[in-house]
């Protein structure tokens, strides 16, 4: 980062520089699309006429409107406007994007009249640029759709290298070892068997070690089966580089190929593609730790509803059910859950197995490292199960059989929040106090969904 605060004539100028692992086309969207500009800019963009001379109308938290006029617009390269503020005068903002390997460099300049708040303005922009980075990151999320009952993750990356060079990086086992999650032993032909190994654990679960080449068309298409999923790489020339389209078709069954597993698959492939691009560019990939994985997994979960609970009707009545994919082994999840006390049948429920939106009765069943069940006042019960997750980790399944008078949307929202906090805690991010605003937001969301489903059911009955 090369940030600066300086005087330019009679004005102040703030200059910021950031590198993003996204092509200019994606970062451009955060600057010029109203919804995305509003996500990070200090004011809400309520109207936006994207052309030179076009007007942007902003509104602050107090409802005061500020307008700006676009003065420069070169798609994917430069964007500038002058913002007019009655209190502080004219502000000239300019954004320039320069391609940099598979990503780009953003230079932002903010010039304004002599102002004693220049340093505070700089600090405010630092926070805004952090949010801009997070907004741009959303565009790097893999797309998720369902085809024939199977989840399909799709990614697209522009690489500043000819298709022939990228082809070697995705098909030569010596090169895939640098970025692919497993070592590959195979032959360059369709129909060739494949063998995957995973470091010290050469054969986790047996079937995760075998596959088959399905398509091999240099330097265009490479596809193969890995256990019960299918991976496909397609390269299309683009100027002096190429566009890589990658898809991962999951099996749609089992804990390694259903929708909840996308919470780990998505960030995993993002990281792999990031390392692939860096290796092609001859640079080191950015360091990524557990906090990065947590943030990206939470984005996938939120974007695609991977952690949403459901309301079922069974012989026992209404049951709220959640299922979460966790990368930690059951022993570690159990340890985090029991830090508030080890559950014992006939005794009170440890705090981390419950939440403040219900009144727990005593523990009724304990299966160490596997399950805990307890009653709820005045009636109902909760069961938390830790099942094995393929190929590694834990599949957490929570069911809450509701009291007939209980409000389903509140139960769904509270457990949803509870499991979000647990997911974060497992990655070392302990969040306190309980986020009431998040629970309220989720309650509104579930109430709307349940109302829509009820209306649809009534329509079917008619």
From TrEMBL:
CDD domains: SRPBCC_CalC_Aha1-like_6. Belongs to the AHA1 family. This is SRPBCC domain-containing protein. Pfam families: AHSA1. Residues 22-135, 162-278 form the Activator of Hsp90 ATPase homologue 1/2-like C-terminal domain.
């Amino acid at each position: 980062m090369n940030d600066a605060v300086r005087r330019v004539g009679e004005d102040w100028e703030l200059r910021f520089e950031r590198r993003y692992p996204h092509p200019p086309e994606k970062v451009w969207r955060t600057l010029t699309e109203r919804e995305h500009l509003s996500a990070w800019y200090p004011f809400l963009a309520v109207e936006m006429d994207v052309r030179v001379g076009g007007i942007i109308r902003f509104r602050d938290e107090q409802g005061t409107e500020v307008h700006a006029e676009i003065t420069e617009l070169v798609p994917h390269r430069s964007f500038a406007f002058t913002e007019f503020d009655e209190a502080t005068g004219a502000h000239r903002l300019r954004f320039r994007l320069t391609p940099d390997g598979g990503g780009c460099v953003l230079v932002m300049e903010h010039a304004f009249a002599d102002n004693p708040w220049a340093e505070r303005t700089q600090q405010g922009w630092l926070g805004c640029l952090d949010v801009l980075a997070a907004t741009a990151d959303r565009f790097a999320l893999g797309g998720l759709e369902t085809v024939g009952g199977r989840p399909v993750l799709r990614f697209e990356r522009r690489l500043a290298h000819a298709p022939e060079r990228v082809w070697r990086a995705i098909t030569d086992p010596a090169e895939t070892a640098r970025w692919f999650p497993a070592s590959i032993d195979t032959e360059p032909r369709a129909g060739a068997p494949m063998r995957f190994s995973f470091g010290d654990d050469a054969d986790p679960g047996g079937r995760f070690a075998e596959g088959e080449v399905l398509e091999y068309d240099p330097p265009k298409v490479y596809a193969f089966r890995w256990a019960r999923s299918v991976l496909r790489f397609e390269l299309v020339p683009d100027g002096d580089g190429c566009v890589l389209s990658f898809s991962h078709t999951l099996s749609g069954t089992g804990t390694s190929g259903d929708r909840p597993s996308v919470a780990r698959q998505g960030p995993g492939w993002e990281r792999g593609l990031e390392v692939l691009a860096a290796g092609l560019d001859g640079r080191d990939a950015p360091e990524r730790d557990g906090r990065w994985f947590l943030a990206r997994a939470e984005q996938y979960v939120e974007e695609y509803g991977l952690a949403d609970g459901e309301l079922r009707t069974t012989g026992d009545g209404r049951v709220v059910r959640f299922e979460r994919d966790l990368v930690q082994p059951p022993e570690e999840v159990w340890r985090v859950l029991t830090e508030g006390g080890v559950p014992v049948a006939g005794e009170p429920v440890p705090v981390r197995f419950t939440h403040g939106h219900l009144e727990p009765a005593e523990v009724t069943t304990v299966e160490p490292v596997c399950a805990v069940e307890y009653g709820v006042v005045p009636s109902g019960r909760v069961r938390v199960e830790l099942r094995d997750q393929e190929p590694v980790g834990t599949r957490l399944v929570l069911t809450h059989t509701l009291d007939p008078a209980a409000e389903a949307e509140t139960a769904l929202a509270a457990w949803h929040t509870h499991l979000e906090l647990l997911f974060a805690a497992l990655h070392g991010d302990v969040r306190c106090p309980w986020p009431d605003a998040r629970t309220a937001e989720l309650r509104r969301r579930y109430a709307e969904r349940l109302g829509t489903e009820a209306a649809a059911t009534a329509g079917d009955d008619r």
